[in-house]
Design a protein that fits this description.
The complex is a heterodimer of chains A (174) and B (155).
Chain A (H helix, E strand, L loop, with lengths): L4 E3 L2 E2 H24 L3 E10 L3 E5 L19 E15 L4 E7 L7 E7 L5 E2 L3 E2 L5 E5 L4 E14 L11 E7 L1
Antiparallel strand pairs in A: 1-2, 4-5, 5-11, 6-10, 6-12, 7-9, 7-11, 8-10
Chain B lengths: L1 H18 L6 E4 L4 E4 L11 E11 L5 E8 L6 E7 L5 E2 L3 E3 L6 E7 L8 E11 L7 H4 L2 E11 L1
Antiparallel strand pairs in B: 1-3, 3-9, 4-8, 4-10, 5-7, 5-9, 6-8
The chains are: A mainly beta (174), B mainly beta (155).
Chain lengths: 174, 155
């Protein structure tokens, strides 16, 4: 009886015997060879929360109008301060920073403007009130800083006294 | 001639099977890590996050080998880096930045052939995720989901 040819020179019974011997000699290593992997992969996920950070470089600013240098007959007296900075980090799009004061009834005027922002656009100088006014525009998805320019104004007719402001900078949607 | 072919084949496969000379194995352990960036400093950048929860188990083979890494991350927004630490054998490469479309890049090189010494070793994968404020957040951009692939191959 003719056996089917597996490859030239090897009859089917001979091949079967060879395979059995191979399996016996190989043992578990053969199984490992079949199971072996040379590649592996896994999934790595990155999530980034909405982060909004605003910080003022100094906790307080004090400005005094003393009358020094004031010309006789001049009603308006001013004093300026640029000693503090505002820093921010915002990873949301389309954001601006507004500014407001806690002092509703003011004897004198206090104006503020952003100076040389590293990101965004400074809004025009505003007189502080309890209503939030634009301070810095287009600061979405950025990290930066600017100087804070304060100007205190007093008229001679307003007399003497002091105003104490608690000033708040807020990040808002544009 | 007939017998030579049969026994040559038999001896060859037996040798391979009994010694494992022609294969190497690589297994990842520790699951699928998630790195969450949640805080940042005004005037600076969000604080990077590190994860060391995953490892690679790998084996020596008959030749000197290396392990490479690549990633697939469509629409990638943030930055992911990986470096192997504490490798049992082989030399960890400098930290690799994983970016969509990158070519396979060395993670560990010079894994010696066997024998002598133990055949199986491992290393810890140190992932570092970072983002800038300019890169946005997951609510707007979506999460980055990387399929990171490691391959051990002859060097």
């Amino acid at each position: 009886m003719l056996a089917p040819t597996v490859q030239p020179g090897l009859t089917f019974p001979s091949f079967t015997r060879s395979l059995m011997v191979l399996l016996l000699l190989g043992g578990t290593h053969l199984f490992e060879m079949v199971q072996a992997q040379t590649t592996g992969n896994h999934t790595v996920t990155i999530t980034v929360a909405t982060i909004t950070a605003v910080q003022v470089s100094s906790g307080s600013v004090s400005m005094s109008i003393t009358g020094a240098g004031v010309a006789a007959g001049q009603d308006l007296m001013t004093v300026s301060d640029q000693s503090t900075n505002l820093l921010w980090g915002i990873n949301s799009a389309n954001r601006k920073i507004t500014v407001s004061t806690s002092l509703g009834s003011q004897t004198f005027s206090l104006r503020v403007v952003a100076i040389s922002p590293t990101q965004g656009i400074a809004a025009p100088e505003v007189t502080l009130s309890t209503v939030a006014n634009d301070f810095l525009l287009s600061v979405g998805r950025s990290s930066g800083s600017c100087g804070i320019g304060y100007t205190g104004l007093a008229l001679a007719s307003q007399g003497t006294g002091s105003d104490s402001h608690s000033i708040t900078f807020t990040v808002q949607s544009e | 001639m007939i017998h030579f072919s049969r026994y040559a084949l038999l001896v060859f496969f037996s040798l391979v099977a009994s010694t494992g000379w022609l294969y190497a194995q690589l297994t990842l352990a520790g699951g699928n890590p998630t790195l969450s960036i949640t805080t940042g400093m005004a005037g600076a950048e969000p604080i990077a996050v590190v994860n060391t929860a995953t490892t690679i188990d790998y084996e020596k083979s008959a030749s000197v080998q290396k392990i490479t890494v690549l990633t697939s991350c469509l629409g990638q927004s943030f930055t992911l880096k990986v470096v192997a630490t504490g490798a049992s054998f082989g030399t960890p490469a400098p930290e690799v930045t994983l970016t969509q479309g990158m070519l396979a890049t060395d993670l560990i090189t010079g894994i010696p052939s066997k024998p002598p010494g133990p055949n199986k070793g491992s290393c810890t994968l140190r992932y570092t995720a970072s983002a800038t404020f300019a890169q946005g957040n997951s609510s707007e951009q979506g999460n980055d989901v990387h399929t990171v692939t490691y391959t051990i191959l002859a060097q």
